[in-house]
């Protein structure tokens, strides 16, 4: 019989406590003074916020500033020199709680077990032979219980499960409204998964989940406004505005893939023509590559190989894709003025084929100072999508406690 991990409750019940904790999580180890400065809180408020977190073991005193940030990845704040007794550092105890993240693709499930700092302890994959919601949920549950068995060996509680799915996802309701790659409609995934797995569950769009991971633990740490653009099967965009990941009133903010960049372009599955995704998504590139080369092109890897062989017309397919992506990124920069745009996703395997066109199209279409936006590429393995799902579970555990979807 499978055991259900005990429910873990995060002790910070005030916004200030959650704010201090997330500041230390993303930027620590920090002195209390520095944590307060970054969080915009008084020393007294920081002391009050830190006390229950230390008592419950989520924060610990001491730590080497040269040893890395709370997440093991983000920037480390330098402790400011003070007169008299050196200021003590506060850091997150990553071993205090564990989390599971699952990314569902059209044909595979990728899962990770992480600590509280979102450091991956174990990753695993399994095929998804049946995309229907019922069988897929059973496969997710099997994978989660496999990771729970590993987690039990550590003795730390598993405090949450995050599931990342492409498409229109209502995080507040824990429902997948529509996922084109899974062909799901109106699936109450959080409630179903909580019952099947015995954990609090957070469900989110996969690009938004990856954006949360970048905001708290990656290239977006410390930035108030940035965007993550993902290139692959689809073209996605996660937005952070004034320090918050934006979902929009209906959960579909950041749909850069369905910006029309060529009204006379190829039809898109959304019903429009010339969308970024209809030109630069994997399926669009593969279809166009077959058309221009006359070769059988089964997948993205084959398309990349043909382009590298310099077959007539092959490189132009990627040039056109790069131009579409660059124009889409410029639209984001013009509208929101982010400090940074992070380009990621499995499609970066072909980045050398369209990097120049992305940059040229972005520079041409970005208006004024929007062109000063820092555009970075960040190749990430598929496990990072699952890590993004774990990141939203951590976020929910800290900021929305008690977590929704608890079984």
From TrEMBL:
CDD domains: ASKHA_ATPase_ROK_CYANR
UniProt KW Cell division keyword: no
Keywords assigned by UniProt, alphabetized: Kinase, Transferase
Gene Ontology MF terms in the entry: kinase activity
Family: Belongs to the ROK (NagC/XylR) family.
Annotated PANTHER family: BIFUNCTIONAL UDP-N-ACETYLGLUCOSAMINE 2-EPIMERASE_N-ACETYLMANNOSAMINE KINASE, ROK (REPRESSOR, ORF, KINASE) FAMILY
The name this protein goes by in its record: Sugar kinase
């Amino acid at each position: 019989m499978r055991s259900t991990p005990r429910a873990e409750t995060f002790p910070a019940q005030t916004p200030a406590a959650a704010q201090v904790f997330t500041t230390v999580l993303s930027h620590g180890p920090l002195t209390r003074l520095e944590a307060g400065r970054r969080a915009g809180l008084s020393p007294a408020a920081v002391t009050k916020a830190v006390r229950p977190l230390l008592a419950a073991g989520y924060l610990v005193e001491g730590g080497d500033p040269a040893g890395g940030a709370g997440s093991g990845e983000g920037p480390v704040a330098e402790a400011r020199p003070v007169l008299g007794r050196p200021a003590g550092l506060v850091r997150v105890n990553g071993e205090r709680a564990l989390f599971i993240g699952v990314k569902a693709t059209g044909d595979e499930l990728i899962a990770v077990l992480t600590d509280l700092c979102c450091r991956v302890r174990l990753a695993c994959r399994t095929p998804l032979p049946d995309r229907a919601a019922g069988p897929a949920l059973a496969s997710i549950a099997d994978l989660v219980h496999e990771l729970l068995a590993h987690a039990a060996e550590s003795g730390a509680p598993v405090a949450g499960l995050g599931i990342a799915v492409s498409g229109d996802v209502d995080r507040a309701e824990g429902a997948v409204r529509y996922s084109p790659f899974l062909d799901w409609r109106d699936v109450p995934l959080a409630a179903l998964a909580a019952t099947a797995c015995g954990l609090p569950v957070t469900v989110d769009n996969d690009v938004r989940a990856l954006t949360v991971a970048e905001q708290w633990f990656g290239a977006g740490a410390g930035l108030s406004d940035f965007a993550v653009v993902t290139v692959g099967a689809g073209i996605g965009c996660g937005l952070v505005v004034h320090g918050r990941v934006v979902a929009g009133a209906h959960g579909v903010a950041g749909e850069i893939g369905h910006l029309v960049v060529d009204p006379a372009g190829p039809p898109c599955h959304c019903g429009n023509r010339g969308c970024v995704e209809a030109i630069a998504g994997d399926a669009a590139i593969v279809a166009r590559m077959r058309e221009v080369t006359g070769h059988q092109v089964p997948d993205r890897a084959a398309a990349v190989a043909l382009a590298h062989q310099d077959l007539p017309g092959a490189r132009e397919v990627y040039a056109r894709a790069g131009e579409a992506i660059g124009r889409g990124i410029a639209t984001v920069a013009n509208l929101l003025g982010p400090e940074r745009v992070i380009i990621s996703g499995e499609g970066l395997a072909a980045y050398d084929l369209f990097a120049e066109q992305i940059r040229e199209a972005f520079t041409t279409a970005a208006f004024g100072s929007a062109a000063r936006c820092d555009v970075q590429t960040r190749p990430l393995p598929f496990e990072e999508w699952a890590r993004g799902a774990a990141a939203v579970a951590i976020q929910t555990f800290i900021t929305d406690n008690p977590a929704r979807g608890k079984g």
